[in-house]
Amino acid sequence: MIDSSKFPLALVMIQPPAMPGSYLNNGESFESISNYVMNEAKMIVDMGFDGFILQNMHDGPIAQQAKPETIAFMTALANWIKSLYPNKVLGILVNWDGVASLAVAAGSHADFVRVEHLYTGVSVDLTGFMQGQCADILTFKKRIQSHIPIYADVQEVNANYLCPNPKPQSAKSVVKSAFADGIFMSGKDAEESLALVKETKKLLPNTPIFLGGGATGDNICELLKYYDGVSVATWIKNGDMRNPIDPKRAEYFLSECKKAQEWRNLNMNRGV
Questions:
Q1: Is residue 242 within 8 Å of 205, Cβ to Cβ?
Q2: How far apart are the C-alpha atoms of 96 and 136, rounded to whole Å?
Q3: Hey, which bits of the chain come out as E strands?
Q4: What is the DSSP letter of 226?
Q5: Would you say 2 and 112 are in contact if contact means Cβ atoms under 8 Å apart?
Q6: Which pLDDT score, from 0 to 100, does residue 126 have?
Q7: I want to staple 90 with a disulfide (CB 3.0 to 4.6 A). Which of 15, 110, 113, 115 is the partner?
Q8: Residue 234 — left, alpha, or beta (φ > 0 → left; ψ -120 to 50 → alpha)?
Q9: Measured between alpha carbons, how far is 105 from 197 in angstroms, rounded to an integer?
Q10: How far apart are CA 34 and CA 47, in angstroms?
Q11: How would residue 272 be classed by pLDDT, with cut points 50, 70 and 90?
């Protein structure tokens, strides 16, 4: 489970190469992929990040029902990460299957699930219509008696939503009517992301809100004064998620996160 007293959290996306069973896997073995994931997890821990989100980003084409082998491989990877780093936060994101994500999280004692596409509403993607999965996810959660928190993206910026409401109002519905435990959200740029979180915090003052994208070393300090966490990938990998982590960028990013933490602690003590 996530300890809110440690907010804001700085998490890194671990995105393995395309795994066996994916159309994009060109013969790389699961053993090789596992070594890649373990090496990256160690680097993330050694640098001082708070944890990770494990996502099969490079599998494709993507559908809303994950393949059995994907669930098996993701569960194995998550178990290895959690067994090696039990005190680090571990989130699970299986593209784009929220029920599968919860299954992997339950099987690996992960700390939360991220549902990026699609917790509520309807969107249009390459594979056609994507439907909100909140009812299926919560039914499964009740059936397996899980208490793992569900963090849902609110109108993720790359999705094409049908008839969307303003994001702050949608965020309130996701939490109050679809029973998400926390949310991810972001705007098209840092300025919009900052405006969104300030407005949404008025509606959901006790709900964790994580930044879903757009974080850089130059904007993260200001953003984490209001967001409760961030998942970063592209910026600390020099603009390409397939690149290795750049230690200098990661160090700078974490130093700015620490400044935001200090600001929050100071203003909390002042009652601001």
A1: no
A2: 13
A3: 9-14, 51-55, 89-93, 112-115, 122-125, 128-131, 150-153, 160-161, 182-185, 209-211, 229-232
A4: T
A5: yes
A6: 81
A7: 110
A8: alpha
A9: 27
A10: 20
A11: low
DSSP string, 110-150: -SEEEE-S-SSSEEEETTEEEE--HHHHHHHHHHTT----E
Are 65 and 27 within 8 A, CB to CB?
A: no
Distance CA 111, CA 228 (A): 15
- Which range is least confidently modeled, 3-7, 207-211, 223-227? 3-7
pLDDT, tens only, 151-202: 999 999 988 999 899 999 999 999 999 999 999 999 999 999 999 999 999 9
Count of residues making up the chain: 272
92 and 101 Cβ atoms separated by less than 8 Å: yes
Q: How many whole angstroms separate alpha carbon 272 and alpha carbon 270?
A: 6
Angle at 208 between CA 117 and CA 216, to 5 degrees: 70
Residue 1, pLDDT score? 77
The two tokens of residue 23 are: 């159309």
pLDDT, tens digit, 9 for 90 and up, residues 144-154: 999 999 999 99
Are 161 and 199 in contact by the 8 Å Cβ rule? The answer is no
| Dist. CA 109–CA 1, nearest whole Å | 9
Q: Model pTM greater than 0.90?
A: yes
